[in-house]
Design brief:
heterodimer; A: 60s Ribosomal Protein L30, Chain: A; 1 helix; about 55% strand; B: mainly beta; 60s Ribosomal Protein L30, Chain: A; two-stranded antiparallel ribbon; about 5% helix; PPC_dom (chain B); PPC domain-containing protein (chain B); PPC_dom (chain A); DNA-binding protein (chain A)
Chain lengths: ~130, ~180
């Protein structure tokens, strides 16, 4: 993940545009799929409006003094309770709350390429139109 | 095919019993959505009332979030191992909780069953009255709003529906995005 340093507050006006209503079949990664869906529809930036389903295993991350650390959640059948965040080609940032098969909750950043759909994921994105 | 795991790099893949079909991403585009904020009062049955709220509205499907609130009674499913060779994982018997349940996260999809009736799919995380964490697939017909109203935001859309269809790869009936005539 890129960690660009921001020197000053940025404000962007805009509105929400088209919706992309999708299903991810098994073994598809959430972040890669979200970016592929945006690219296929010519969308430069989008927000997650809906996301639920299940993962084979979840791999979540958080920032620490030593850099990004991993929270592995072993499945299969890790339930996605919610996904939030922005999609920007190659620079998406998505967070998720998930539960393992014992119902225990975990939260963190979605690690790219490491959160694969188990049975299905319903993912709905909405275009962000600046200006 | 016998369902099995396959290690690819540092992630596990799961190969289901049915033949995988292309494309792997199914998607439809909608021009715009309609936003709804719904507040369910204490004592309300969540599934029944949500369907009543949506009855008569012109929409094909919807997606949204549980924003805040609690439940006095709740049932949810977790994934369990089965004895079926073709479907080795499925939802188990519901886990039932009573009293002072606090929602902390949740997502909802309003899809359509084969008869085109609205169908609710909801996953959520919540805390029980002892402080224990839980998360899973909610049985909305068996959830009663607690002393805190339940706030739900939905984005309704037309022309595209999340339609239940059998999935030959996983052997589950799942929500698929499909184009529809405007409602």
């Amino acid at each position: 993940m890129n960690a660009a340093v921001l020197d000053e507050t940025q404000i962007q006006s805009g509105r929400l545009g088209r919706l992309v209503v999708a299903r991810l079949k098994p073994n598809e990664d959430i972040m890669d799929s979200a970016e592929a869906l945006c690219a296929a529809h010519g969308i430069g930036a989008a927000v997650v409006r809906g996301g639920l389903g299940s993962l084979i295993d979840a791999n979540l991350e958080y920032h620490s003094r030593e850099g990004l650390k991993l929270i592995p959640v072993t499945g299969p059948g890790v339930e996605i309770l919610s996904i939030t965040g922005e999609i920007r080609a190659g620079d998406s940032r998505l967070q998720a709350v998930v539960a393992d098969a014992d119902g225990k909750i975990y939260a963190g950043l979605l690690a790219r390429g490491r959160n694969l759909s188990f049975i299905t994921i319903e993912l709905t994105l909405q275009e962000w139109l600046p200006g | 095919m016998q369902p099995h795991f396959e290690q690819q790099g540092d992630v596990r893949h799961f190969i289901h019993g049915g033949e995988p079909q292309e494309p792997r991403l199914l998607d439809c585009e909608v021009a715009e959505g309609e936003e709804l904020r719904i507040v369910l009062a204490p004592g309300t049955n969540v599934g029944k009332t949500l369907l009543e709220v949506l009855e008569g509205r012109r929409y094909a499907s919807a997606v949204g979030r549980l924003l805040s609130g609690g439940a006095s009674h709740l049932a949810y499913h977790r994934m369990v191992v089965t004895t079926s060779e073709q479907k080795p994982y499925d939802y188990g018997a519901p886990v039932v909780l009573d009293g002072y349940i606090t929602f902390v996260s949740g997502a909802i999809t309003v899809g359509r069953d084969p008869q085109d009736k609205a169908l609710l799919h909801c996953h959520a995380g919540f805390i029980d009255r002892e402080g224990g964490q839980h998360g899973g697939h909610l049985v909305l017909d068996r959830i009663v709003v607690g002393s805190e109203p339940l706030v739900i935001r939905l984005c309704l859309f037309n022309h595209v529906a999340y339609q239940v269809k059998p999935d030959s790869e996983t052997h589950f009936s799942l929500l698929h995005p499909v184009l529809q005539e405007a409602v």
